[in-house]
Amino acid sequence: xxxxxSNRIETERLDSVILSxxxxxxxxxxxxxxxxxxxKSKCYFNDARYQLIFNILxxxxxxxxxxxxxxxxxxxxxxxxxNDENMKLYVSNIAKKAYVAD
Length: 102
Description:
Layout: H1 11-24, H2 26-36, H3 48-64, H4 70-80, H5 85-100
Helix pairs in contact: 1-2, 1-3, 1-5, 4-5
């Protein structure tokens, strides 16, 4: 019995899969970048924190023409959440998971 729900990926999982593929596959990232880079105006991810990380990847790529190492992403996250330790920790954990995903 084929249930439609069994063929769908959970939206939360989809956000993490997209971000993981972006940091692991430059070709995939470059295909998404023109459509999903938003600056601060929109959010194409279900969770805005994933969009924030994606935008960090895009900004770094524009400057250095390569996907940033995790350390650079964490520095930018830290700078953006100086006064909110909980949010900084949460967003940092999302980034770390994206870089170590299988």
